[in-house]
Specification:
Blueprint (H helix, E strand, L loop, with lengths): L1 E4 L12 E3 L2 H9 L4 E3 L2 H34 L1 E6 L6 E6 L1 H11 L15 E3 L1 E10 L2 E11 L1
Parallel strand pairs: 4-8
Antiparallel strand pairs: 1-2, 1-3, 5-6, 7-8
Amino acid sequence: MKVILFEDVKSLGKKGDIVTVNDGYARNFILKKKLGAEATSKNLNDLKLKKQNDEKKAAEILASAEKLAGELSDKSVTLTIKAGSDGRAFGSVSTKEISAAAKEQLGYDLDKKKMHLNEPIKNIGTYLVPIKLHPKVTAELKVIVNGK
């Protein structure tokens, strides 16, 4: 019997795969636990439409991430921290502070976990902070650190 899998099944296949299994295994395990459905023409058509819809959504998410990356490349965020006379800060600037400043100054809600700092920002100056918006899209936000 041919079955369309709705979830990943160990040693059988991934979600969306069409696999051939014994009738008893299909009836007693896959269909009973709602891990899949019989591969009828209606179900195959539904799977095809679902895959097209998923691809369309993925393309829209990628396009919106690219658009946001383009917008962020022109913008900058300014942070003010306590610093000594030599330009070294007392403490450091974290991704949490950068995220909060971006929300306050630019209106963008950026996830602090998606920002990647190679090393903590401990000096006054201008820095480019990479932000991973999508697995294929990485934007850079300009962060200006001023001292008090």
